[in-house]
Design a protein that fits this description.
The protein has a four-stranded antiparallel beta sheet with strand order 2-3-1-4, with helices on one face. With 90 residues, it is α+β, with helices and mostly antiparallel strands. Helices cover 14% and strands 29% of the residues. The protein is globular and about 35 Å long. It has one domain: Alpha-Beta Plaits (2-Layer Sandwich).
Length: 90
């Protein structure tokens, strides 16, 4: 991977948008229906991806999945009925 690519990372714990800056500007959404936090955004390269995964490890969070998406943009937004942005994620 030599060029930026969009990724979706799912974790079991609940995080809120306060972590966005620490995770390099990734969008952070809590999906209440599946009780997972979803981190989405462009990764500049493989080292950037591994940097985010290292932060997840360092926080002791439970990694569920990492998926490289086909394209960025509006398709990254989850359906509103699958998310709950009102929870304070800590």
């Amino acid at each position: 991977m030599d060029e930026p690519a969009p990724y979706e990372i799912r974790i079991a714990e609940q995080l809120d948008a306060r972590w966005t800056e620490w995770f390099g500007g990734l969008e952070i959404v809590y999906a209440a229906q599946c009780d997972q936090t979803i981190l989405r955004g462009e990764m500049a390269d493989q080292p950037a991806l591994f940097g985010v995964l290292g932060k997840i490890r360092d926080l002791g969070l439970t990694l569920i999945s990492v998926q490289r998406l086909q394209h960025a943009g509006p398709a990254l937004d989850p359906p509103l009925d699958e998310t709950d942005r009102s929870h304070p994620l800590e």
